[in-house]
Input
Amino acid sequence: MIALALVTGTVLAQSMLPKLAVKSTYRVGFAQTESNNPWRLAQTKSMQDEAKRLGYQLVYTDAAGSTAKQVADVRSMIAQKVDAIFLSPREDKPLAPVVAEARKAGIPVILLDRNIDPALSKAGADYVTFIGSDFIKEGQRVGDWLVKNAKGKTNIIELEGTTGSSPANDRKTGFDGVIAKNSSFKILASQSGDFSRDKGRQAAETLLQAHPEANVIYAHNDEMAIGAISALEAAGKKPGVDVLVLSIDGGKEAVKLVVDGKINYVVECNPRFGPEAFKTLKGYAAGTKYPAKVINTDRDYTAQSAKTGLAGAY
Output
């Protein structure tokens, strides 16, 4: 199932952006940040499948978790004179200069999943729009669920995503803001797990040793949550019972862990960008004006909904 996108906000003039001719086919770049987890693999497959369906040529690159390589990847696409570039930025500041370089070269850029620092790069001026989830709201939804369902578990460890990335920044902002308004809850410690299963496990092990009183783990993505489950089990604790485990992304493995009771709550971050991304590209060529953000609609998974939702998870 593909989540619908909600177009919100003030429509931008976009007069400073490069034009895109209306054509029957396009040669489009897609600069992926990494392919080391199910979410990224699902996003890439969605983009490739939709390009194939439309008969477009997709110039695909994988930065393998390296910001420097992603900068080089985008510059290579500029040199190849692709018609447009889809970019999932690894970090929100270092990619701003190459977005500007693409604009100067006459190549429109559409951001997917992660945003660019708005102080350095602006929608409607440097790139067309951002398509993705509301990361702040995702964090808020996790916080709201915890406040309502904690049952006395209030000592929190937070496993943060890649330092400097917009989802890590915003998922922390949203969650921490809810917790700050509820004085009975306390974030004992936070540490980056780089959106990685093994690094999430290592961070959880370290923080659990330092804070044995922790009874909630909030992970910024499923991979770190699954790593945290391994750390909890190694420490002789029962995930989902002794320690609540909360996550964001909604991959099939994590949803199955909700069914099994080891993860208590997951907010989906839908990776199926292909249809909306290419629809936006064609719309832009036809003269459609877009707001700064096109927000995906994401569901969630609880003990009550996970079993029926499992089949539709990526």
User: Anything to note?
Assistant: The first helix runs from residue 38 to 54. The two ends are 9 Å apart (CA to CA). The chain has two domains: 5-133+270-297, 135-269.
